[in-house]
Automatic annotation (TrEMBL):
<dbReference type="InterPro" id="IPR000649">
    <property type="entry name" value="IF-2B-related"/>
</dbReference>
<feature type="site" description="Transition state stabilizer">
    <location>
        <position position="155"/>
    </location>
</feature>
<dbReference type="InterPro" id="IPR027363">
    <property type="entry name" value="M1Pi_N"/>
</dbReference>
<dbReference type="InterPro" id="IPR037171">
    <property type="entry name" value="NagB/RpiA_transferase-like"/>
</dbReference>
<feature type="binding site">
    <location>
        <begin position="245"/>
        <end position="246"/>
    </location>
    <ligand>
        <name>substrate</name>
    </ligand>
</feature>
<keyword id="KW-0028">Amino-acid biosynthesis</keyword>
<dbReference type="InterPro" id="IPR011559">
    <property type="entry name" value="Initiation_fac_2B_a/b/d"/>
</dbReference>
<protein>
    <recommendedName>
        <fullName>Methylthioribose-1-phosphate isomerase</fullName>
        <ecNumber>5.3.1.23</ecNumber>
    </recommendedName>
</protein>
<dbReference type="InterPro" id="IPR005251">
    <property type="entry name" value="IF-M1Pi"/>
</dbReference>
<dbReference type="InterPro" id="IPR042529">
    <property type="entry name" value="IF_2B-like_C"/>
</dbReference>
<comment type="function">
    <text>Catalyzes the interconversion of methylthioribose-1-phosphate (MTR-1-P) into methylthioribulose-1-phosphate (MTRu-1-P).</text>
</comment>
<keyword id="KW-0486">Methionine biosynthesis</keyword>
<comment type="pathway">
    <text>Amino-acid biosynthesis; L-methionine biosynthesis via salvage pathway; L-methionine from S-methyl-5-thio-alpha-D-ribose 1-phosphate: step 1/6.</text>
</comment>
<feature type="binding site">
    <location>
        <position position="87"/>
    </location>
    <ligand>
        <name>substrate</name>
    </ligand>
</feature>
<dbReference type="GO" id="GO:0019509">
    <property type="term" value="P:L-methionine salvage from methylthioadenosine"/>
</dbReference>
<feature type="binding site">
    <location>
        <position position="194"/>
    </location>
    <ligand>
        <name>substrate</name>
    </ligand>
</feature>
<keyword id="KW-0413">Isomerase</keyword>
């Protein structure tokens, strides 16, 4: 199942707000519609958001080209600035937009149609590299798991969150292919239920054993049944290894440390923000109260309930057993500032 596809000037992607009960592809030709789709999590997951952002810049360039050569680059830059702000935490969005702006710089002075073609090629490279990175990450991560592994994951860091195969679920897929997975426990992941709706859906589609739990069950699961590893994705990793990921990740890391369970983060280098010295520099998106006062869209809390709804939290690097990337596994103490592989973002 493809998360997103570019075809004849149109960006198609699965509307993830409708999964698992409805499979519907959106077809977008306006970059502003892509921004809205990112904001409402129709497309979501750090690498997938980056890829969508890269194609949104293409759509902006197509529109800018229609207005002629004069002021073309300025119009694309203005749109790119809007696109980069669609969601603040996943650094992949800013990173992908920065990659497209670099193409714009390189192509300065070329006919707009040629620039558009270059931007399409760069967006395709971003997607292909992401899918390849996930398979490399999967192999590195699978090697860390014991035979008969019972794994706990949070939110959805699967194919739906990327350009294919997944990050945390990429490790699960590779380990399953090696016959190493006994069970995957998936946190439902309130408030938007990416675990219940998307991770369970993906793993069932692939015939990988999965058990759904509520977020509050994670500690008792470790105490009662035993877990061999917690594996999660990431939205932004600071230079010191602090990890921003879906809200509830930090709690899992504390529980894992208490129970002596390895806590692994699987993420491509495009999720590392070397300019953020530590987690305090990572912007945490706060979302609408209605997401918390309702369950699957049905109001549960009294009207007017006061809410705090951070969509992410930050796990300190000292609780992260290893960071699995396409370039290998990193162990503490983390220092990505000096890692030449880490891609700088504009
Ligand atoms: C492979 S990155 C997935 C990452 O993104 C999710 O957030 P959201 O669903 O709000 O886009 C979550 O933090 C996942 O770990």
């Amino acid at each position: 199942m493809e998360t997103l596809r570019w075809e004849n000037g149109t960006l198609y992607f699965l509307d993830q707000t409708l999964l698992p009960h409805e499979t519907r592809y959106l077809s977008l030709t306006d970059y502003r519609a892509v921004i809205e789709a990112i904001k409402r999590l129709a497309v979501r997951g750090a690498p997938a958001i980056g890829a969508a952002g890269a194609y949104a810049v293409v759509l902006a360039a197509v529109a800018a080209a229609r207005e002629g050569r004069e002021g073309f680059a300025a119009r694309v830059r203005a749109a790119a600035a809007e696109i980069a702000q669609a969601r603040p935490t996943a650094v992949n969005l800013r990173w992908a937009v920065a990659r497209q702006l670099r193409v714009l710089d390189i192509a300065a002075g070329e006919e707009p149609e040629k620039v558009v073609a270059r931007l399409v090629a760069e967006a395709a490279r971003i997607c292909a590299a992401d899918a390849a990175a996930n398979r490399a990450m999967g192999a590195y991560g699978a090697a860390l798991l014991p035979p008969g592994a019972r794994v706990l994951t949070h939110c959805n860091a699967g194919a739906l969150a990327t350009c294919g195969y997944g990050t945390a679920l990429g490790v699960v897929r590779a380990a399953h292919a090696a016959g190493k997975i006994k069970m995957v426990y998936a946190d439902e992941t309130r408030p938007l239920l990416q675990g219940a709706r998307l991770t369970v859906f993906e793993l069932q589609q692939d015939g990988i054993p999965v058990t759904l739990i509520t977020d509050g069950m994670a500690g008792y699961l470790m105490a009662k049944k035993g877990i061999d590893a917690v594996i999660v994705g990431a939205d932004r990793i600071a230079a010191n290894g602090d990890v921003a990921n879906k809200i509830g990740t930090y709690s899992l890391a504390v529980l894992a440390r208490h129970h002596g369970v390895p806590f692994y983060v699987a993420a491509p280098l495009s999720t590392i923000d070397a300019a953020a010295s530590d987690g305090s520099a990572i912007p945490i998106e706060e979302r609408d109260a209605a997401e918390v006062t309702s369950f699957a869209g049905v109001a549960v809390a009294p009207p007017g309930t006061r809410v705090w709804n951070p969509a992410f939290d930050v796990t300190p690097a000292d609780l992260v057993s290893a960071i699995i990337t396409e370039k290998g596994v990193f162990y503490p103490p983390y220092n990505f500032k000096d890692n030449q592989e880490v891609l700088p973002i504009g």
